[in-house]
Write a structure and sequence with these properties.
With 165 residues, this protein is an alpha+beta fold. The protein has 2 domains: 5-123, Cytidine Deaminase, domain 2 (3-Layer(aba) Sandwich); 129-165, no CATH class. Helices cover 45% and strands 17% of the residues. It has helices spanning 5-18, 56-66, 90-99, 120-123, 130-164, and strands spanning 31-35, 39-43, 75-79, 105-110, 113-119. Strands 2-1-3-4-5 form a 5-stranded mixed β-sheet, sandwiched between helices. The chain is globular. It starts with a helix and ends with a helix. It binds zinc ion (ZN). Zinc ion binds at residues 55, 57, 88-89, 91-92.
Length: 165
């Protein structure tokens, strides 16, 4: 497959970041690189609690957010040594949904090079996002208002006078 030069360069950065992985439990090292106005790398960082583990993709995204360079990211490269290039996990896809458009290109590679490209929209066609949260809040808003009004007028004054004797 034809891989743009800037992707090949970022693949090299992701492959190098992979070697910094802290993966004493799974022994599965992953490197990632985001490509935008700048390149931001990440590696997986495992934890003895297991639940504290964070994937390479999310490390790269969180770094880019914290450094103010997540705007304008167009590509992410993920490098593993798996026999079949590994896709980002569902946690990482959900985090991608927070920051990227469906057009984000997700390049998967092994130690020999870039093997395939998918758009983010192909990998997660129906992400949960702020729209769903907004719709849910709107739907819930009326009952919440009714509940708080009932609480203020009902038990509120009675309880106060009871405490003061
Ligand atoms: Zn992940």
């Amino acid at each position: 497959m034809k891989v743009p030069a800037k992707i090949t360069a970022a693949y090299g950065r992701a492959k190098a970041a992979r070697l910094k992985a802290h993966a004493p439990y799974s022994k599965f090292q992953v490197g990632a690189a985001l490509v935008g106005p700048s390149v931001t790398t990440g590696c997986n960082v495992e934890n003895a609690s297991y639940g504290g583990t964070v994937c390479a993709e999310r490390i790269a995204i969180f770094k880019a957010v914290s450094e103010g360079v997540v705007e304008g990211v167009t590509d992410i490269i993920v490098v593993t040594d798996a026999p079949e290039p590994a896709y980002p996990c569902a946690f990482c896809l959900q985090v991608m949904a927070e920051f990227f458009d469906p057009s984000l290109r997700v390049w998967l590679g092994d130690l020999k090079g870039v093997r395939s490209m998918h758009t983010f929209g192909e990998l997660l066609p129906h992400p949960f996002g702020p729209k769903q949260l907004g719709d849910a809040r709107e739907a819930a808003a009326a009952p919440i208002e009714r509940r708080s009004r009932a609480g203020a007028s009902g038990s509120g004054s009675g309880r106060k006078s009871g405490r003061r004797k």
